Design the sequence.
């Protein structure tokens, strides 16, 4: 289904577990039994309290984050970071997709927010990582971080995300909250 409708770009047909060039082990990504394991990009936004801003979803202050471009992201203890998927999604009108964290990260106390991708939504998925531990936590760019599960309906929805002109439609890269 994913390749026929070009739902995921770039699409990896199967699980990648090692870097072929270096033989280094990777956190797996690509097509799985009933889902797709996504990678996060190398652009991260990490929460900071340098400017003593208040987190307000209706009036979000971009100074609440520090931007990092790296192959790894160190999330401070009990803190939070954003990244986006490497993959760009185009969800069909009869499919609902749910993003769940990978158990490899969850077992380290790193939680990925559960996020739905509604019918006819498209874009890079903004990933939200919470470090629930009292230790710094590492996220690896260009490796698996979350799994997408796809639920296909027998019927198309009456009103899609695209029909509603959803505020996150077509987002590219890390997208901050929009009121």
Sequence:
């Amino acid at each position: 289904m994913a390749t026929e409708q070009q739902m995921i770009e770039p699409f990896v047909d199967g699980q990648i577990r090692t870097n072929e060039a270096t033989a280094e082990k990777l956190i797996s990504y690509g097509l799985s039994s009933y889902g797709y394991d996504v990678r996060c990009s190398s652009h991260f936004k990490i929460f900071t309290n340098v400017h003593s801003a208040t987190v307000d979803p209706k009036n979000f202050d971009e100074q609440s984050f520090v931007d990092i471009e790296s192959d790894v992201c160190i999330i401070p203890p009990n803190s939070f970071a954003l990244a986006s998927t490497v993959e760009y999604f185009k969800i069909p009108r009869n499919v609902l997709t749910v993003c769940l964290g990978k158990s490899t990260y969850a077992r380290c106390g790193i939680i990925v927010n559960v996020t739905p991708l509604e019918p006819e939504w498209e874009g890079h998925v903004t990933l939200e990582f919470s470090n629930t531990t009292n230790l710094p936590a590492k996220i690896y760019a260009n490796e698996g971080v979350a799994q997408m599960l796809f639920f296909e309906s027998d019927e198309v929805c009456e009103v899609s995300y695209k029909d509603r002109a959803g505020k996150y439609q077509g987002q590219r890269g890390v997208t901050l909250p929009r009121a």
